[in-house]
Design brief:
The chain has about 100 residues and is mainly β. About 10% of the residues lie in helices and about 35% in strands. It starts with 17 loop residues before the first strand and ends with a strand.
Amino acid sequence: MKSFSELGVTTNRRFVGDKIKIEKIEGAEIIVLDYEVRASKLSKENDPNWKGERKECLYLQIEVGGQKRVLWGSYMYLIDQISQVKPEDLPFKATIVNEHGYVFK
């Protein structure tokens, strides 16, 4: 019988570090290392922040205070902004602020 390590199974997990809540980093300078926009796992019925037909979730690999952290959520303005960032412009410094919705500054 083969062991699991002999099966050649790989993982494509790109993001490392503990999850951090957006409220913990609001107003602090962060470094955005990578991002991905995925389909949201939440439905309209169980998402209190549902906005229209948006069904996307933003995953951010960030560095804050010298530590890699992961942030995710359905932040529609952050999704709109980061979707305009070219991959070659990563990483970049930013601050996230709440202006009737979270945005990069």
